[in-house]
Amino acid sequence: MLDGAEGYAVRKSMEILTALGDIYGAESLINVGSVQVAGVSYSNLGDAGLEFLDELAKDGRVRVLTTLNPAGMDLENWRQLGISLEFADKQNLVIKAFERMGILVSCTCTPYLIGNLPLYGEHLAWSESSAVTFANSVIGAKTNKEGGPSALAAAFVGKTPCYGLHLDQNRVADVHIEVKAELKKLSDWGALGYAIGKKAENKIPYITGINAANVDELKSFCASVVTYGAKPLFYIKGITPASEKQTQPAQTVVIEQTDIKGAYDNINDQVSDIELVCVGCPHCSINEIAKAAELIKGKQVAAGTEFWVATSRTAKQLADKRGYTAVIEAAGGKFACDTCMAVAPLKGRFKSLATTSAKGCFYSRQNLMKTKMGSIEECVEAAVTGKWSS
What element of type H or E holds 334? Predict the structure, then answer.
């Protein structure tokens, strides 16, 4: 492969993978069960990235199940979300290049909700930070946080270098987090992730004091804890797989209610008028869409404010069948499938954002927005009043 016997894309991929292996001291390559490729938005790729993908697509074909991270726009309703024709044309060229490679155009940061569900202990090559953290922690698969090119390389070869979180000795918890705070709403999990991420910077937390957690709560926590500093792996005693195999680390950090409040204080800016309300970072599950529909039914989004539900195309199709889409759109809400607030070209379009997502606030600040994080109830209230009241 490295000598070019299987074509340009495979040779280029092996150059990337062997370079990574050399850098990190990997002794071998290992087979991967699936790949998730980031670097899909034209906003991040630019013309140089598009040219690179076009070149690979000439003879590159994936060997394992491969899905895509969100693109820079809704691939069907981009006009409704205010995307320019110029951007849409370039983004579509990016998607067509991936299609030629044999990649599933899933465009979601939650591949585990739409069919790319790994096995416990399976080796992967995933890219998006929250998905990587979910795969490692909640599913118990094994993956490093790949860059877009290295994930694509693994897809063409079907293998990745065996280093980092693929090795059991690197998956040992090294800080004990004792949670003494009460988590009452979904956004509290984002605040918890912020607090733990800051205190467990570049460490693997072993978390106690949490008695129950559903998929949406864990999804939110995964996105936040890695965004704000921890490694993309954690253990929650009695909840996540392999937690019972971990020995509680000697170093203990306690998370109090004051730490949750401090997280909100740091994430929330001083702003009252809200121009964009966006839920779905990571992408909304069907349960979150149902809740949004229930809360906004019979109401109307305020003039001067937009309400976006970011989700996968698959979840949107299910919402269509269950009537949630009609309810949200009747209220003036918009679905943002295939994309999200982190990768869409939003800089300069909105001055303020309300969301349930700590990660969404992190990236929206980079797009020069003032941010507010709270419950889905608070976000819908902001959408229909145009104000953040709490």
Answer: strand 334-337
**In the prediction, which pLDDT does 155 show?**
98
Residue 390: per-residue pLDDT: 73
Do the Cβ atoms of 74 and 81 come closer than 8 Å? yes
Tokens read off for 369: 């927005």
Counting other chains too, the contacts that 143-149 makes at CB distance below 8 Å and 24 or more residues apart are 145/226, 145/232, 146/38, 147/38, 147/39, 148/37, 148/38, 148/39, 148/40, 149/16, 149/39, 149/52
Q: In sequence order, what are the residues at sequence separation of 6 or more whose Cβ sits closer than 8 angstroms to the Cβ of residue 220?
A: 186, 187, 189, 190, 193, 282, 356, 357, 358
Report the relative pairing of strands 29-31 and 159-161 from DSSP bridges: antiparallel
Q: How far apart are the first and last CA of the chain?
A: 59
Q: What is the pLDDT of residues 54-88, one digit of tens each?
A: 999 999 999 999 999 999 999 999 999 999 999 99
CB 382 within 8 A of CB 271: no
Q: Looking at residue 22, what is its pLDDT?
A: 97
Total-model pTM: 0.97
Q: Are 232 and 165 in contact (CB under 8 A)?
A: yes
Angle at 307 between CA 305 and CA 308, to 5 degrees: 140
Counting as low any pLDDT under 70, the low residues of the chain are: none
Judging by beta carbons within 10 Å of its beta carbon (0-12, 13-18, 19+), is residue 306 exposed, middle or buried? buried
The length of the chain in residues reads 390
What is the C-alpha separation between 337 and 308, in angstroms, rounded?
A: 9
Name the residue with tokens 């795969």: 135
Which distant-in-sequence residues (6+ apart) come within 8 Å of 155 by Cβ?
35, 37, 62, 63, 64, 66, 101, 103, 125
The reported pLDDT for the residue numbered 43 is 93
Judge whether 215 and 349 are in contact, CB under 8 Å. no
Q: Which strand (E) or helix (H) includes residue 288?
A: helix 286-296
Strand partners, 228: none
pLDDT score at 389: 86
